[in-house]
Structures are given as structure tokens and as C-alpha cells.
């Protein structure tokens, strides 16, 4: 029996989480779900976007599922703080072409490994009405740790190249240390090609030659931006899962946010959340079930019959969920 912390958040976060739980209830594995609150609605009710109680529930679980939350003006981001509280330092975001989806190529299969604990996400900003400063923290320790995670993931995926993405021509000190740490770690993996590109060039290469990437490792903000761009190459945010992995916990969430433009309409694509649950099962060592879920999602997408409006269909969130479950059992 796995103890799973479930934090739906708000907007479509709760809608895709309902789908995910519906699916997990149907598979041949026992879970005990413990529920935590976070986000905009949580702030309105409790005065904080991330209550201590939610962090405790997450800390005591075998893994955490997170939906999405709307940003709250003047308040810290609950997901950034939860990632930091759990020290889940490696944000793993696989990008893959799916059959039946309008991808820009059909041979895209790479993963973005985003550093999760520092960079421009320190949320330390100050100044006055004339000038504002945001701190960008980059440490050798976190840069080496994330590089190691990227090389290990490259081996796990059976691929042979890791690309470090930075802007060290301008951010000479912070990205200087990031790049240096990457090449230091690369020496421990002589069988894997290590290369680096500037982030602006990478943004273009992702459009012109996405098939050439295996594993991309980058700092927090660059990794965030490149992962939404990459999701756009292969069908959009409705198909983009992620896992945040640390040494003691794993937190799994779709790449997308709370999508206020479609919230409450029951048309959110549940696939990114369900694929995130598949990543959670892989993390828990339930490789067969993880793979079955991935295959079931791929089958439903390839059939082109039951799909949400973001993929050109007119099915609702639960229709897609039930179609995936039908493939599974
Ligand atoms: P978003 O990811 O919520 O939405 C961007 C676009 O993608 C929208 O057009 C939306 O309808 C579409 N989309 C996203 N997920 C979809 C799905 N599952 N199915 C179909 N279409 C989908 O990003 P946006 O609009 O920039 O941010 C909305 C709110 O979410 C903001 O308050 C933002 O701060 C927050 N946010 C939260 C995140 C989190 O909780 N991890 C991550 C990103 C944004
Ligand atoms: Mg993002």
C-alpha cells in the first residue's frame, strides 16, 4: 500500500486530479490518499497558499501528486515552496511525439531536467518604485547535483547526449559556475557526449532540430520556459507531464498551470496529469503499471476518437479519462 499525498490546488488542477484519482482507483494497486490544500482558494480560506499541514502530509507520503494552482497576488508560489520544502531538486519533463497528434516532427524524444531549488526562483525581490532587484542564486552544489541527475537519467533512458543550457556569455558568474559544474560532472560519464548551448540558440534549435536533443539540463527559469516551448512542439500542455525528484521524495504534476480560461468547463485534457501519475509509479518501482498507463494514453490519443478540444476534439475530461481506463482494464 502506497501513501500518496494528493494536492489538487485550484482551477483545472482539481479537475485533472479527479481524473487521475479515478484512474488510480481502477488499477490493481492499493493506495491510501491523504489530502492537502494549497493555492489561491486555500489562501482565501486560510491566509496562506501552502499550510504547514500540507507540507507535513507531503513529507510523510511515499509520493505526492499536485494538480495546479492560480498565482495569488503578493503571495509566494505554493508549488515552488513545496518543491523546496521536499527538496525535490530535479524537475524531469519528458517531451515526446505522439501518434495522431499534430507534432512538428514524429521523432521527438527528449527530456528537460530543470534545477528546482534556486536560480531566479529564489523569490527574493526588493527595491523601491524606481528600481527592483531579483536575486539569482546559483551554487556549485546544486549545479553539480542537477548535472548528475541529468547524466543518470540519460543512462536510464538509454540515450547518449546531455546538453547544458545557459547564458554564460552574459550571466558570466552565475551561469559560469553552472556550466563549469556541468563539465566537471561530465568527466564521470565519459560514455555520454556532453555539450552546451546558450538558451536563446536552444530556443531556436528546439524548433529547427528537436530530434537532436536527448537530455537538456538547465537552471530553474530557463528550464521552465523551454519546457512550455517544448510542450508546444508535441501537442501542447495537455500532454506534458513532470516529476520532481529528490533523494527522499517525489512530487508529480502536469507542466501546465490552473488554466483559468477553461476552468470549470470540464474540458481540460487529463493526459498530462495521468502521465505524471505514470511517472510516479515508475518512481515507486511499479514499472509495469507505469508503462501500461503510458501505453493506454498513447492508444487513446492515437485513436483520434475521444479527445479534448485542445487536441481538436469535443470530448470532456471524464470521457478521455474513462477511455484511458477502458484500455487499461
Ligand atoms: P496555463 O498552463 O494554466 O495555461 C496556458 C494555456 O494552456 C491556456 O490556454 C490553457 O487553457 C492551456 N492548457 C493548460 N493546461 C491544459 C490542459 N490540461 N488541457 C487543455 N488546455 C490546457 O498557464 P497560464 O495561463 O499562463 O497560467 C494560469 C495560472 O496558472 C496562473 O495563475 C499561473 O501563475 C498558474 N500556473 C501554475 C502552475 C502550477 O501550479 N504548477 C504552473 C504554471 C502556471
Ligand atoms: Mg511553467
Folded structure, characterized:
41% of the residues lie in helices and 20% in strands. The chain is α/β, with parallel strands linked by helices and 329 residues long. The chain has a 10-stranded mixed β-sheet with strand order 2-1-3-12-11-4-5-10-8-9, sandwiched between helices. Strand 11 and strand 12 form a beta hairpin. The mean pLDDT is 96. It binds 1,4-dihydronicotinamide adenine dinucleotide (NAI) and magnesium ion. The site of magnesium ion has 2 residues, from helix 8.
Features:
329 residues, alpha/beta, Isopropylmalate Dehydrogenase, 2 domains, two-stranded antiparallel ribbon, 11 helices, 41% helix, binds 1,4-dihydronicotinamide adenine dinucleotide, binds magnesium ion
